[in-house]
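Model: Ready when you are.
Researcher: Fold this.
Model:
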Amino acid sequence: MLIGVLLAPLPLATAPHKMAAIISMVMVLWVTEALPLSATALLGPALAVILRVAPARTALAPFADPTIFLFIGAFMLAEGMFVHRLDRRIAYTALSWRFVGTSPGRVLVVYGGVATALSMWISNTATTAMLFPIGMSLIGQMRQPGNARATQGFAMSMMLITAFGASIGGMATPVGTPPNLIGIGMLERIGGQRIEFFDWMAFGVPAVIVMFVALCAVLYLMGVKGTPVPTGGTGAIREELKKLGPLSIGERNVLIAFGTTIVLWIAPGLFAIAGLGDSAFARGYAQAMPEGVAAVCGALLLFLLPIDWRTRRSTLTWDEASNIDWGIVLLFGGGLALGELAFSTGLADALGKGITAWLPSQSTTAITILFTGTAIVLSEATSNTAAANMIVPVAIAVAQAAGIRPLEPALGATLGASMGFMMPVSSPTNAIVYSSGYISITSMMRYGVILDLLGFVVISAIVLLLGPLLF
C-alpha cells in the first residue's frame, strides 16, 4: 500500500503525497490488525521522519501532548479501583439493594446502570470483564429448573446490557473511553477548539441517559418481560458483599484520590455555574490545573496515601500502576501525530476540498450526520480507538474546507466511533459477553443494529442541538 500510493500519480505536492501513502498504509494495518494497533501507531510517525515529511521533534511531539497525561492518570486511578476491588463493591452494593428484589426487570436496569456508571470512569473492557461473572451468577439464580428456555431471554439481555451499557457509559465523560480524548485532543491541536471536562459532560451525560433508557426498554420488552420470578432473588450477591467486609483502607484511599480528581476536573464548570467563570481566580486555576495535571495529581495521591506505615505500603505500587494499557496511550499519541502531520503538510486541506466537492450539501447538519454515520459503520470493522483516529481528522478537514466550524462534525465522529454493537469482533466488550454462550450472532446483530440506529439519531441530534448552545 505504501509503495503503491507513493508511485501513484496523485495531484499533490511531495510532502502531502508521502503523507497520503503513510496514512493509507496505517489505515490498512489498523483495519486488518496485521500488526498490533499500538505498533502501527508508532510506525506512522517513524516513517514520516524517515521519508523526510517532518523532523523527529515535530513528528513525535504529540506523544507528549497534555491529553496523554490525562490518559495515564485516569488509567492509574482505574487500576487503583481494580486492585482494591472498589469497583466490585460498588456493583455488589447496587445489586443487593432491596428495591431490586426478585424482579428480572429491576435486576436488568440496576445491573445495566452499574455497568454504565462504572464505564464513565474506567474502561468499558475492564467494566465488562469485572461484571461478567456477576451477571453469570445472576443468570444462574434466575434459571428455572427444568425450564431453561423460560430464562433464555433474560440471560441474553443481561449479557447484552453488560457490553452495550459499558460502551454507552463511556461517552459521558472525557475519560470514559479513548475516542473521547482523541476527539478532544484533535479538536484542540488541529481544530482550534478547546473542550473542558464539564462542558463534555453537559452533552455526553444526556446522550448516555437517553440511550440507556432506550436500551433498557428494548431489552426488557424483547427479552425480559414475562421471565418467571425465582425465589432465590439476589441473595448470593448479598453474600458476596458480606464477604468483602467493611470498607478497607485501600478502598477508602482510592475513593479519596478519585473524588479529589473529579472535583479538580469539574471545578471550572462549577466556577461558571457560580458566575465566577471570568474571574481572575478561575482563569488562574484553568492555567494551573488543566485536566491532564489534575489526573496526574489524583494518580500521585495513590502513591502518597499509605495502607501500612510500617511496611511502607502505599495504596498503589509502581508494579501495579505499570499494568495500565500503555498500548492505548501509544495509539492515541500516534493518531494525534498523524492527524497533525496531515494538516501541516496540506494533505488534510486537499482531502477536505476533494470530499467537499462531492457532497450535495455542505451545511453543518449534513456534514455532522455524514461523519456520525461513517464513524458508526467504521467502528463495526475496527476498534473504536482506531476508528476515531481515522475519521475525526477527516471530519475536521472536510468541515474546514466547507467553511463551517469543525466542532459538530468532529464530535459526531468521536461519539459515533464509540458505537460498534453488531458483531463480537466490533469491540472487546462484545467478545467477552459472546463467550457466555447465551448470545447468538443473529441476536447480537439484531440488537446491535437497533442500538447503532438509535445512537446515530441521538448523537446527531444532541451534537447539533447542544453544540451551538455550549460552545
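Researcher: Now this one.
Model:
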Amino acid sequence: MLDALCWVLFNKPFRNIRMLQLINSVNGKGTRAEVEFRVGTHQYKVVRGYKQSVFEIWKNGELLPQPGNVKDYQVILEEQILKLNYKSFTQVVILGSATFTPFMQLPVKDRREVIEDLLDIQIFSQMNTLLRDRLAKNKNEVTDLDYQIELVENKIEVQNKYLSQLKQDLDKEIQEYNSMIESAEGINANNQVQITETQSQIDKFFEKINDFTKVQKRSDKISELINKLQDKEHTSEKRLKFFETHDNCPTCDQIIDEKIKSEKIESTEQSITETTNAIAMLHKESQQLHERLDEINKTQMSISELQQNISQLQSDIKSIDKTIVQYRKKIETLAERKGSNPTVDIEIDKLKSDMKSFSTKREELSKQRVVLDLGAKMLKDGGIKTKIVRQYVPIINKLVNKYLAALDFFVNFELDEEFNEAIKSRHRDDFSYASFSEGEKARIDISLMLTWRAVAKLKNSVSTNLLILDEVFDSSVDANGVEILMGLFNELKDTNMFVISHKGDMMVDKFRSMIKFEKVKSFSRIAA
C-alpha cells in the first residue's frame, strides 16, 4: 500500500526496491495505481502506470495539460499541488519501519532539506542554485571578456607596432629622398661652378678675339685693294703691251713719238712694278690677317664648344631641379602618410571602441559580481535560511519535548541550527539519538513526526489530515507504550490515521474500522 501511494505520487517506491520489483512476479503484468485526494475545495486524482506508461493529473474531473517533459509534470504535482517532496512526505505523513529512515538517522544535508521544505524556504536553496549558475555564468563572461580585452589589446599593439614600423620605414624613405635631394643639389652646385668656370674661359676667349671685327674689316679692305691693284696691274700690262707692240696711235693713226713711247713704257713699267710690289705687300698682310682669322675661328669653335657645355650643364640643372621637385613632393606625400594612416587609424579607433565596450561590460559584470556575491552570502547555509531556521528552532525543540513528555519520555531534546541533536537525561550526561533503545528511538521519531506536522501547519505550507503508521505498534513498543501512543494520537483532531500492523486483532477495539489484507494464490487482496 505504501509502495503504491509513494509511487503514484512521487514515482518512487516507499521501500528501497527497484521499479521492476513493483510488478507482480506471478503474472508479470503491468502496474497501475490511482489515488484521489482533496486540497481545499479542489478534488484531485493522480494516475500512474508502468509498462503501459501513464501519468495523469486530474483536477475537478479535468485532465491538467501535460508539458512535453514528464519531469515538469512531476514538479507541478509536488510544488503546486502537494507542496511536499518525497523526503518531506515520508517524514510528515508516514512513520514506518523497515527501510524507512527516521529523521534522526538522516544525514545533516537531508535533515536540512526536510526542514527547509517544511518551512517553505527551499526557494532559497533553489535561488542559491540559480545564483551559483549566474555566478558561474558571470565568471565565464568575465573570463571571455578578459580574453576579448587581451585580444583587442594585442591587436591594438600590433597596429601600433605596424604604425611604428611604418613610420620608421617612411622616415627611412624620407631620409633617402633627402639624401638624393642633397646629392642632386650638390651636383647642381658643381654644375653651376662648371658653368661659371666655363663662362670665365669664354670671356677670356672673347678677350683674345676682340679684334675680330677689325681684322675682318682689314682683311676685306685688303682683298678689295688687291683686286683694284690687280685690275690696275692688268690694265697697265695691257697698256705696256700696246706701247711695246704698236707704233701708231689706233685712234688718229699717227706715228707714236719714240720718246713719248719710251716714256710711256717706262712710266707704265714703273707703275706695274709699284702695283706689283703693293699687291705683294697686301698679300703678305692679307696672309697675316687670314692667319689671325684662323686663330679667331679656332677660338670661336672653342667658345662654341664651351657654350654647348654650358647649355648641357644648364639643361642638366633644369632636369635635376625637376627631379628635386618630384623628390620633395614624394617627401610631402610620405610625411602625410607618416602623420596619418586612415585605414589603420579607423581600425585602431574601432578596436578602442570595442575595448571601451568590453571594459564597460566588464565593469558592469564586476558590479553584478559584487551583488551576486552578496546574494550568495545571504543564501548560503549560514545566511538568511539560518536566520529563519533560528526563529523556528526554539519552537521545534519546545514541541518535541512536549510530545516526548506526552509519551512519558522525560528528556531534554534540542536541535541546533545545523540540526545536530543534544539530548540530556536527568542525572545523566549528554546523549545522542543512537544511545537509546529502539523503543525510546521510536518515541523520539514519533515526537519529531508530530512536531513536523505541527510546524508545517503553523507555517501553513503543508497542512495534511493524513497520518500513516507502519508497524509502529508491532515492535519496540510495549503495552503501556501503546496506551500512551493511542492517548496522544486520539488528541489529534481532524486527522485520518492509518495504522499498519500485524497485531490487528489486539488493537481492533482502539480504532473506528479495520481493513484486513490476505494473500490468495500469491496475490494480496482485501479480505471480505
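Researcher: Key takeaway?
Model: The chain has a mean pLDDT of 85.
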